[in-house]
Amino acid sequence: xxxxxxxxxxxxxxxxxxxxxxxxxxxxxxxxxxxxxxxxxxxxxxxxxxxxxxxxxxxxxxxxxxxxxxxxxxxxxxxxxxxxxxxxxxxxxxxxxxxxxxxxxxxxxxxxxxxxxxxxxxxxxxxxxxxxxxxxxxxxxxxxxxxxxxxxxxxxxxxxxxxxxxxxxxxxxxxxxxxxxxxxxxxxxxxxxxxxxxxxxxxxxxxxxxxxxxxxxxxxxxxxxxxxxxxxxxxxxxxxxxxxxxxxxxxxxxxxxxxxxxxxxxxxxxxxxxxxxxxxxxxxxxxxxxxxxxxxxxxxxxxxxxxxxxxxxxxxxxxxxxxxxxxxxxxxxxxxxxxxx
Amino acid sequence: xxxxxxxxxxxxxxxxxxxxxxxxxxxxxxxxxxxxxxxxxxxxxxxxxxxxxxxxxxxxxxxxxxxxxxxxxxxxxxxxxxxxxxxxxxxxxxxxxxxxxxxxxxxxxxxxxxxxxxxxxxxxxxxxxxxxxxxxxxxxxxxxxxxxxxxxxxxxxxxxxxxxxxxxxxxxxxxxxxxxxxxxxxxxxxxxxxxxxxxxxxxxxxxxxxxxxxxxxxxxxxxxxxxxxxxxxxxxxxxxxxxxxxxxxxxxxxxxxxxxxxxxxxxxxxxxxxxxxxxxxxxxxxxxxxxxxxxxxxxxxxxxxxxxxxxxxxxxxxxxxxxxxxx
Amino acid sequence: xxxxxxxxxxxxxxxxxxxxxxxxxxxxxxxxxxxxxxxxxxxxxxxxxxxxxxxxxxxxxxxxxxxxxxxxxxxxxxxxxxxxxxxxxxxxxxxxxxxxxxxxxxxxxxxxxxxxxxxxxxxxxxxxxxxxxxxxxxxxxxxxxxxxxxxxxxxxxxxxxxxxxxxxxxxxxxxxxxxxxxxxxxxxxxxxxxxxxxxxxxxxxxxxxxxxxxxxxxxxxxxxxxxxxxxxxxxxxxxxxxxxxxxxxxxxxxxxxxxxxxxxxxxxxxxxxxxxxxxxxxxxxxxxxxxxxxxxxxxxxxxxxxxxxxxxxxxxxxxxxxxxxxxxxxxxxxxxxxxxxxxxxxxxxxxxxxxxxxxxxxxxxxxxxxxxxxxxxxxxxxxxxxxxxxxxxxxxxxxxxxxxxxxxxxxxxxxxxxxxxxxxxxxxxxxxxxxxxxx
Lengths: 341, 327, 439
Description:
The complex is a heterotrimer.
Chain A: H1 2-8, H2 21-46, H3 61-68, E1 76-80, H4 84-90, H5 94-101, E2 125-129, H6 136-149, E3 155-160, H7 167-178, E4 183-189, E5 192-193, E6 196-197, H8 198-201, E7 218-222, H9 226-243, E8 247-252, H10 272-279, H11 283-293, H12 299-322
Parallel strand pairs in A: 1-2, 1-3, 3-4, 4-8, 7-8
Antiparallel strand pairs in A: 5-6
Helix pairs in contact in A: 2-3, 2-4, 2-11, 2-12, 3-4, 3-9, 5-12, 6-7
Chain B: E1 2-5, H1 6-20, E2 24-28, H2 44-48, E3 53-55, H3 60-72, E4 76-80, H4 84-87, H5 91-98, H6 101-104, E5 114-118, H7 134-138, E6 144-146, H8 151-163, E7 168-172, E8 180-183, E9 196-199, E10 204-208, H9 211-224, E11 230-234, E12 237-239, H10 243-253, E13 256-263, H11 268-279, E14 289-293, H12 302-308, H13 312-322
Parallel strand pairs in B: 2-3, 2-4, 4-5, 5-7, 6-7, 10-11, 10-13, 13-14
Antiparallel strand pairs in B: 1-8, 6-12, 9-11
Chain C: E1 3-6, E2 16-22, E3 29-30, E4 35-40, E5 45-49, E6 54-59, E7 66-68, E8 72-77, H1 84-93, H2 98-101, H3 159-168, H4 186-190, H5 200-203, E9 215-219, H6 222-235, E10 240-248, H7 250-261, H8 270-284, E11 290-292, E12 296-300, E13 305-307, E14 309-311, E15 314-316, E16 319-320, H9 328-343, E17 357-361, E18 380-394, E19 397-411, H10 417-432
């Protein structure tokens, strides 16, 4: 038994080995797209094009990009309300996402979900969920369904570190481990649950250790290093796919923006100095430097990539603005479906 | 036709639907090895195995969510709550997840799930175990809410609920499990959303559902002896509500009593009365009277419990009152 | 020379009329024979014509108001003629001007001159009441809830009652409400004749809710109208004829003794048995279970049997509702109880109104045969004498049998001779073969 536990003991995941130059290009582009997209989101929010709650992912792009790179097309993803980056990384159309944020009929949820609730059935993207912790049992349920049908897919369940204090998290992880469900519980530890620092909310500061109480394999990884995230997720996904065993993967990252658009970037709960310190490890910069050192990209290449990505985002904006508002008839649609059987 | 208990009627429905569709599974506390806290799932583990009859830890929030997740990707879970009192722990999954996913995904993810279990008071179980929650769930768009009162309705409606592509909340009654009634031997389903006239009369309408439907039938039989003929409209489904059945009856009788197990304030009965006042305003000869649980947590002592619950005598008094008859 | 304009009886059954519309304004010149106003009677709107020439000087009731036949409603006079005494007389003697009825009565020191309240109009402030105390009255001295529909200053009626009243042309202001707080409810409207004068028996509610299926209203045929008119002329308001029959109560008596032998709780009176038989027969003969309502006959599908009870200074008729559906045990218990309370004067109004047919029994006073007076609008009453041993011929032998003689008074406008006779045949069958009561 003691041996088993040692085997599961966390190791910082490996670095860039195992990726090709082409894959690194894809990851860089994915992170840059997320960044530029969300910068325009902030602008749109300020202009009143986007309403409601809007939680930006800026600073955490390596988590979405790296984790998604570890998945197959038929795997499932379920996540929280901070979902723009993951949706883009999974391949949801920037047009459909922006239209959704603008509340338009061409949005990926027909304008009914908004920022917190991006969905795409065709990509097995099971949505952004708005109740902290509430979607973790759903992720376990997807794993249950995979096992029920005897498939070899994996469910990747994203959550923030504050989720680990909810009952739903405990209940879901206990059953996932008890029933050996093929789920990767990926914690994006951005250090703050809204304005409450991790150390002020959790009795254990090494979040991945929570898995010990479910006898579940666990690891932590540097979340600003997209290649490390990818490789750690790959290991967890392999375990789920081939051993039908869940993993708790703690990804240590940092959010450069406020909790939501209505929240100051720094101030009451974190200092500007702390923020600036973390911003030195911008995940896009980290990969770019690695690639520059390897001769895989130069300034011109970077500028070209940035231009491409900005054009995509502008196209998404234009599309969203041109998309009609949802027709009023749709108000009462999608409450229930007609039963076919 | 066979005489079957409510419990066995539910068991038959589960068994037949699990045989019919291998995406259907039953999950909850004590549903497998123990054979069901109320023996509704008796024999199912033996027939279908532990992947389809899943014993869970005591973790309502967790397994309700597992059900919703499984339903998102195509399974058809039947989630058993040992009682609806415990289901309060899972209400986030029912209300925020199951009821909302279709809408907030813009129609992409329907949730074919059944949440079922006993609801309402049994005998002397006191405050935390004697609650009727149908008004809570019936409040929520995106759910269907069913509450059958007879074995025949229980079986036919549970089969419909399992086949439904939407989340269905299914309220049973601990005091109903042993009640017996005729159940057709052949395959049948009862559509969700259809009321049934359990007794016919032209003097007064009693609108009710679930366990209270049995009580309403007793009331009708007793009043019949005094020459008072009562229409008993058993809604069977609370959401969507068969408003046409209610209004047709009230237009005939001009008087209505609404009987429910739950509390008065914002109860299902309030919704029924609203439909009556809107659609039958010029047909009413008396204000509608509601019979319901006293506005207190359920007490333990026998006499207090009796005083708190709706019963035949209280309902008869209400009928006489809307008919302007002396008690 | 002034001409008084009265509310005229514009139909034979009319006791009051509702002024629908004045066709002449005060100050208009009118000639004898000119139409002054439209008045609503039973169901028709009739014209009220001037009976003299002059100027319509004063209108004493407002449009929509109801006034009894014979009351002064306007004055026609010369343009300068003094009519003050005529108008004042109307205020003192007749119903109050309806235009004022909606306004609170003006305070006056003289109760004699206070406008009298009509049956349905609330007197909100006592005209000569004490000066209100500045101190709030203690709760126990609060006035009891009024039984008037208009007690809160407006007519209270159920939505259904309003709809039915509109459909039937019933003036809600002319009927009383039997619901809580004087609310006019369905049964009040149904027991009120359409827009016509209401006899007390008619306007009081029946104690059981009537629904549309409880009776059929049958319009009068021409022949029925003629019979009604000619018979009424011949014999008075209720053209009555009498049918007498004698029944053999030997078997009923045996049954009664056998039951009494089983214990006190099974004791029933002969009257109970007769009531049961009459009620059962009425259910079989709705043509006798009917009300004459002037322009139509109401045949009841339910049997509410009135039971005349002698009280100290007269007579009252409590009602056994749905008597045909009650067993002997219930009839015995209820009639005993009703009679006792009748003698104690403790009956509530809804317990002695609403009968569809009545029975009167004087057998206990040693009367062996009598005729009873019909209680309008009922179409019949059965007078029951005492049960006497009498010699009768059975199979060629003279034997002594207990016999009962009854006489049915029939309103010929509703019941013809053969109709009544057939009803009595059924009563005979039920009493002579009492097992038929259980059929």
